[in-house]
Structure to design on (418 residues):
DNA sequence: CGAGAATACGAGCAATTACTCGTATTGACA
DNA sequence: TGTCAATACGAGTAATTGCTCGTATTCTCG
């Protein structure tokens, strides 16, 4: 997974801490500026270091985004993997549709709210080719899991139909996530989440066995 | 609406033609590069003129986008206003839900396919502040019309509920449009449109009186 | 025809930005 | 303690890009 460190550094205490700080700063700057408009100098400044120092740890702006994506992926797996885990699939199969949606959507929404920089890398339509690959893992992990759930809940679907439906579901989620994250108040946010779930339910109900 | 022309030009035959050519070029470049990555020099080159000539007609890149948006708005009104027109509302009220969706979605899809540059200005999440205003008219026109239809079909909704539902519907459409437009084959495209309609139907059915 | 405005050109400017490089400091380890 | 790599700095560079400016050409109109 990490084949880019041909020569491991020695001073890892300071270094690792710096890298983490840089990623924190990058997440914040990406969240508020978007990927393209975020400048590497701004990220360095937000991390309290010089541009040169940033490039001591990351080869390029894209490498920062890549590392941040990796970190998000790991965080998501650690925090919310349960709901999606293969072991949980059987339990998910027996659930009420509304409960199923809650079980899947709520953790994802919580994660997106806790990590506002996430959607800047996840829900971006104008990714540079390299970054599409970077965000790909998250995207395809989510897709694969949704497909797995569909396979259990809607055995009548052919494989291509299942793939298409999963794509549509993920797309709906991605489209509505920015609105949810940007909600001004808590009530507003809950209302947006309710709408998101309505959309998902409306699409899923006819498919659901 | 057009308060920016304090001093009308004289040679309008050549000039107007050039402006139209520039907008054609801009639509093409925006379509394939996106707004940010599209350079004014590239637009000028695509129009077969020099950068200086472009700026004889448009004060800035943003002004080009603004003018293009205006042209799209007018085209959309001319071509597909009927389906949305106030006069047609009564007819729409009596329709089957599937027919209603066809009536509204099909022209919009056709327009987006015929004008691939449209979505670059319409479905962009990272608009500069000025451009949000530029794209606003299209967005809010569409929103207003969807709201009008909802008012007729779902009289039980409160005004805020109606506004929110309209926003959700437009958002779904925007999110799925790029996939529809980019479809590789005709069958693929039809399948995507079917999914789009399924999503809309699933969300609307419970609301529909 | 002659004048003035509209159109056209394209080299180049000013600002931005991802990234580098020469150098200085810090700290682990012999 | 001395050494050397890791860390840190920040002015500077090359490339990009929106846009300008001086100038040349074309057209309208009297």
């Amino acid at each position: 997974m990490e084949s880019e460190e041909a020569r491991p550094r020695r001073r890892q205490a300071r270094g690792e801490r710096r890298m983490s700080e840089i990623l924190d700063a990058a997440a914040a700057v990406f969240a508020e500026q978007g990927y393209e408009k975020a400048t590497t100098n701004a990220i360095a400044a937000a991390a309290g270091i010089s541009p040169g120092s940033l490039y001591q740890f990351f080869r390029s702006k894209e490498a920062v985004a890549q590392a941040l994506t990796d970190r998000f992926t790991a965080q998501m797996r650690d925090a919310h993997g349960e709901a999606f885990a293969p072991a949980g699939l059987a339990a998910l199969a027996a659930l009420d549709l509304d409960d199923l949606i809650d079980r899947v959507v709520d953790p994802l929404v919580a994660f997106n709210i806790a990590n506002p920089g996430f959607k800047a890398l996840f829900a971006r339509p104008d990714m540079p080719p390299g970054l599409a690959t970077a965000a790909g893992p998250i995207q395809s992990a989510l897709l694969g899991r949704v497909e797995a759930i569909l396979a259990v809940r809607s055995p009548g679907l052919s494989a291509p139909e299942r793939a298409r439906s999963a794509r549509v579901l993920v797309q709906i989620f991605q489209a509505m996530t920015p609105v949810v994250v940007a909600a001004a108040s808590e009530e507003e946010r809950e209302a947006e989440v309710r709408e998101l779930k309505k959309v998902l339910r409306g699409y899923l109900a006819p498919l659901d066995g």
